[in-house]
From TrEMBL, chain A:
Protein name per Swiss-Prot or TrEMBL: Response regulator transcription factor
Localization terms from the record: Cytoplasm
Family matches, as SMART domains: REC, Trans_reg_C
Family annotation (InterPro entries): CheY-like_superfamily, OmpR/PhoB-type_DNA-bd, Sig_transdc_resp-reg_C-effctor, Sig_transdc_resp-reg_receiver, WalR-like, WH-like_DNA-bd_sf
DNA-binding annotation, residue ranges on this chain: 121-222
Top-level taxon of the source organism: Bacteria
Residues where 4-aspartylphosphate is found: 50
Domain Response regulatory: 3-114
Principal subcellular localization: cytoplasm
Domain OmpR/PhoB-type: 121-222
TrEMBL record, chain B:
Chain ranges of the HAMP domain: 183-235
Transmembrane segments: 12-36, 159-182
One example GO MF annotation: kinase activity
InterPro entries per record: HAMP_dom (IPR003660), HATPase_C_sf (IPR036890), HATPase_dom (IPR003594), His_kinase_dom (IPR005467), HisK_dim/P_dom (IPR003661), HisK_dim/P_sf (IPR036097), HssS/ArlS-like (IPR050398)
Origin species: Pallidibacillus pasinlerensis
Protein name, entry field: histidine kinase
Reaction(s) this enzyme catalyzes, per UniProt: ATP + protein L-histidine = ADP + protein N-phospho-L-histidine
EC numbers: 2.7.13.3
Keywords on record: ATP-binding, Cell membrane, Kinase, Membrane, Nucleotide-binding, Phosphoprotein, Transferase, Transmembrane, Transmembrane helix, Two-component regulatory system
Membrane-topology annotation of the record: Multi-pass membrane protein
Length: 222, 455
């Protein structure tokens, strides 16, 4: 079970978010200030932080947590929407969500962060594929066979899964996987996507797992 | 005291000194000229005045006038003045003794010839002295002649050239003093100008050192005062800006917190058993919360933009890629609302635009938001590129009912005002065509910019 440490001084909002997240299956520890959080830090998977807090502000708390725990994702949740605030927040935090937010969006962002930090070994069901996200073991449910991906295909698929439901442009994919700037007209990415589809799609000619979004890029949707 | 330190006073001093010194030179000259005779030393044997006095004196002292004594006298003089010539005319007008006389002299001297001789020689060359011999004037006269070039020049002439050179010297000295004086001023003014052009990291001038208390010193002090005031006002401005930002940030925060609380409350209400109407009300409340949220954001941005306090940091950006990524982030929202999403982005001739990515993101967000909220009925959004001879453009189109007939939701206005200010702030252009068939918005970048003049 995913443990969330949630720091929020507004009682109404705190109660609401806590209840909502609990309903979604998370275990939530809600605190009203940064005091005494140290005892929980080692046991949690993600921290959600408000900025305006009594005593030490959220930025300072977040920076301290991040300095000591690099692998602990931090999501800032604040009513401060100025660009300067967002920039300061994102200088250490992994995401910044502004109030008033929709609880579903908060949950979605938590999921993204957990995926990015490999915090939950989720078993992801993508149509006929069962995927263990931590080690990216892919099993074709219909045949019961494990699908082996070669180097670049593996990284490409992993990149898609990390950005589940997000549309990725060719440039983003190429730069994310190859680590080099994309040059207009380069066919390398398309070739690799074709190979990947041949391995994972039921019908590679009509792909449904890796969708082509016309004019923009590709998407793997849950 | 102040006047004495001024440049004016200094220059006046130079002028007065020059005039004073010139006057002194003239006075000294006059003294020398008029007192010259008394100053002459008797030993000066080449001085014509001395010769004349001595010749007269000695001639009057000759006793027993005879050829012999005269010759003896002449010989003695000859030793002292080898270039001289001398002769004696006796009381009867006969030319008697002559020494080294080059010209023809009349043998018999009459009153006429004597007068003629005197007239001829007066002030001429050779220098001539005529003296009567002995005490009575019946013994005739002796004449002493010497070419003037053998003598010392007369005193007046000598002191005249001294005066001339002194005067010229004075004028040169005055010119030099003036030159140095103005050169000094010029140098200080140039240094001051250079110092005035120096800027610190904030682009403000730096105070200069004040060394003297004259007019330039006062100018420097005034300049320093100005710099001080400039710094003060800049600081005040920064403080005000900081205050304004803080105020807006706090206001925005204070408005959003209760808004979030309302959302929390609706959540708890929604958990109750509600009628369909109740559920509808909750849904509408949530929409309103989103709407107010966006309005607050736009209002804050608008306020900052109006006061030109919205940070603008342009960078070279691949704009096609930027727009592609922006529509990608909006894709699922449009998809959820059942929009047909038509994206056709082709590279321009020049993909790199000098824009602020935050501003551009804001523009696109506002435009997409408007389509999502006000053109829902069309179920279509097109994002395309368009290139003509004059411009490259992004075209965002929808099939809603148009801006006028528009949607039942108001509030597009302020969003578009922000788009307008930001587009123009980045030296781009935009236009909008809205009809009942839909709205087409183009964000254009002119190839030959209107701001760049064609020569």
């Amino acid at each position: 079970m995913v443990h969330i440490l949630y720091i929020e001084d507004e009682k109404d909002i705190g109660k609401w978010v806590t209840q909502n997240l609990k309903e979604k299956g998370y275990q939530v520890k809600w605190m009203q200030s940064g005091e005494g959080i140290d005892q929980y830090i080692s046991t949690v998977d993600i921290v959600i932080l408000d900025v305006m807090l009594p005593g030490l502000d959220g930025f300072s708390i977040g920076k301290r947590i991040k300095r000591e725990n690099k692998d602990l994702p931090i999501l800032m949740l604040s009513a401060r929407t100025a660009v300067e605030d967002k920039l300061e927040g994102l200088s250490f935090a992994d995401d910044y969500l502004t109030k008033p937010f929709h609880p579903d969006e908060l949950a979605a962002r938590i999921e993204v962060l957990l995926r990015r930090f490999n915090k939950n070994d989720n078993i992801l069901q993508l149509q006929h594929l069962t995927i263990h996200t931590k080690d990216l073991q892919i099993v074709n449910q219909e045949t019961g066979e494990e699908i082996q991906l070669t180097g670049k295909q593996y990284y490409l698929f992993q990149y898609f899964l990390r950005h589940l439901n997000q549309i990725l442009t060719k440039e983003q994919l190429y730069e994310g996987v190859w680590g080099e700037p994309y040059i207009e007209g380069d066919k390398t990415l398309m070739v690799h996507i074709r190979y990947l589809r041949e391995k994972i799609e039921k019908d590679p000619a009509n792909p449904t797992i890796i969708e082509t979004i016309r004019g923009i890029g590709y998407r793997v949707k849950k | 005291m102040k006047f004495l330190r001024s440049l004016l006073a200094k220059y006046m001093l130079i002028v007065v000194t020059a005039i004073f010194l010139t006057q002194i030179v003239f006075v000294i000259y006059a003294l020398i000229m008029f007192g010259a005779d008394s100053i002459i030393s008797p030993e000066d044997s080449l001085n014509p005045n001395v010769i004349e006095e001595k010749w007269n004196d000695e001639a009057s002292k000759i006793q027993n006038v005879s050829e012999e004594t005269i010759q003896k006298h002449f010989k003695k003089w000859m030793q002292q003045y080898p270039a001289a010539s001398m002769f004696w005319v006796d009381g009867n007008g006969n030319l008697r003794t002559q020494f080294d006389v080059k010209e023809e002299l009349p043998l018999k001297w009459t009153a006429t010839s004597t007068a003629h001789f005197i007239k001829e020689r007066y002030g001429g060359d050779p220098f001539t002295v005529i003296a009567f011999v002995g005490k009575d004037k019946s013994q005739g006269f002796i004449v002493f002649e010497i070419p003037r070039n053998q003598l010392k020049p007369p005193d007046g002439q000598k002191y005249g050239s001294v005066l001339l050179s002194l005067t010229i010297g004075m004028i040169l000295l005055f010119i030099l003093a003036s030159f140095l004086f103005f050169k000094g001023i010029r140098k200080r003014l140039l240094n001051l100008q250079k110092a005035m052009e120096v800027r610190d990291v904030n682009g403000l001038p730096i105070q200069v050192d004040v060394k003297k208390n004259d007019e330039i010193g006062q100018l420097e002090q005034t300049f320093n005062q100005m710099v001080f005031e400039l710094r003060e006002s800049k600081q005040r401005e920064q403080e005000e800006e900081q205050l304004r930002r803080e105020l807006i940030a706090n206001l925005s925060h204070d408005l959003r917190t209760p808004l979030t609380k309302i959302r929390a409350q609706t959540y708890f209400i929604a958990k109750e058993e509600l009628s369909q109407e109740g559920n509808q009300a909750i849904k509408s409340m949530e929409d309103s919360i989103d709407h107010i949220d966006r309005l607050i954001e736009n209002l804050m941005s608008y306020t900052l933009l109006m006061a030109s306090k919205y940070k603008f940091e342009p960078k070279e950006i691949d704009v096609v890629r930027f727009v592609k990524e922006s529509i990608a982030s909006w894709y699922s929202l449009f998809e959820k609302e059942g929009f047909e999403i038509d994206v056709e982005l082709h590279p321009f001739e020049k993909n790199k635009w000098m824009i602020d990515p935050l501003w551009m993101g804001r523009i696109l967000d506002n435009l997409f938001q408007n389509v999502l909220r006000h053109a829902k009925s069309g179920r279509y959004i097109g994002v395309k590129t368009e290139s003509t001879k004059e411009y490259d453009a992004f075209v965002i189109s929808d099939r809603g009912k148009g801006m006028k007939n528009g949607s039942n939701e108001k509030g597009a206005g302020i969003g578009l005002s922000i788009v307008d200010m930001m587009v123009k702030g980045m030296e781009l252009d935009w236009d909008m065509k809205s009809s009942e068939q839909g709205t087409i918005i183009k964000i254009k970048r002119y190839k030959v910019g209107r701001s760049e003049k064609t020569f």
